[in-house]
């Protein structure tokens, strides 16, 4: 899970402080802006054994870097279409706007995504021997 430093990472922190129940099989990677998440990061995550990749950032219009999340949305749509061409299901890459004050929404999003991915099963890109 890639989280922008200014909003969604703070939302994740708030979810932890408030002790909202969350699955333990999520790995959070803090990036300065969601627009810094590149297609290479996402493809590498899948090739390294991730069953899904989640991207979170500031709400549209609230980006600390003016329009970073607009750029994220453009990249997201492109990468999602590329993953579809590779045979990766739509629900394996998700984008959500989460602010620093939305710890409960962060926890709900994580729980929802883990349930969806469990239903999908392991990623078709997962190599034998990768846990």
N to C succession of SSEs: EHEHEHEH
**Structural shape:** globular
* Count of helix runs: 4
Class by SSE composition: alpha/beta
Residue ranges: pLDDT <50 for 5 or more in a row?
A: none
Q: What is the CA-based Rg, rounded?
A: 14 Å
- The spatial strand order of the largest sheet comes to 2-1-3-4
Q: Largest sheet at a glance? A: 4 strands, parallel
Number of strands: 4
Distance N to C terminus: 17 Å
The average pLDDT score comes to: 93
Strand content: 5-15%
- Helix fraction? 40-55%
Jot down its keywords:
single chain; 131 residues; alpha/beta; 4-stranded parallel sheet; 4 helices; 42% helix; globular
Summarize the structure.
It is built from 4 helices and 4 strands; from the N terminus they run E-H-E-H-E-H-E-H.
General description of the model:
This protein is α/β, with parallel strands linked by helices and 131 residues long. The protein contains 4 helices and 4 strands, in the order βαβαβαβα. It has helices at 8-17, 39-47, 68-85, 103-120, and strands at residues 2-4, 29-31, 53-57, 93-97. A 4-stranded parallel beta sheet has the order 2-1-3-4, with helices on both faces. α3 links the parallel β3 and β4. α1 packs across α4 (103-120).
List the helices and strands and how they pair.
Layout: E1 2-4, H1 8-17, E2 29-31, H2 39-47, E3 53-57, H3 68-85, E4 93-97, H4 103-120
Parallel strand pairs: 1-2, 1-3, 3-4
């Amino acid at each position: 899970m890639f989280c922008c430093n200014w909003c969604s990472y703070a939302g994740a922190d708030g979810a932890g402080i408030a002790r909202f129940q969350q699955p333990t099989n999520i790995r959070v990677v803090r990036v300065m802006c969601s627009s810094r998440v590149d297609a290479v990061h996402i493809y590498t995550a899948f090739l390294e054994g991730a069953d899904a990749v989640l991207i979170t950032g500031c709400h549209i219009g609230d980006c600390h870097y003016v329009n970073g999340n607009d750029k994220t949305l453009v990249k997201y749509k492109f990468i999602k279409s590329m993953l579809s061409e590779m045979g990766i299901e739509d629900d394996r890459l998700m984008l959500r706007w989460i602010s620093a004050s939305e710890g409960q929404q962060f926890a709900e999003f994580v729980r929802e995504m883990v349930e969806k991915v469990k239903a999908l099963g392991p990623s078709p890109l997962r190599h034998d021997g990768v846990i």
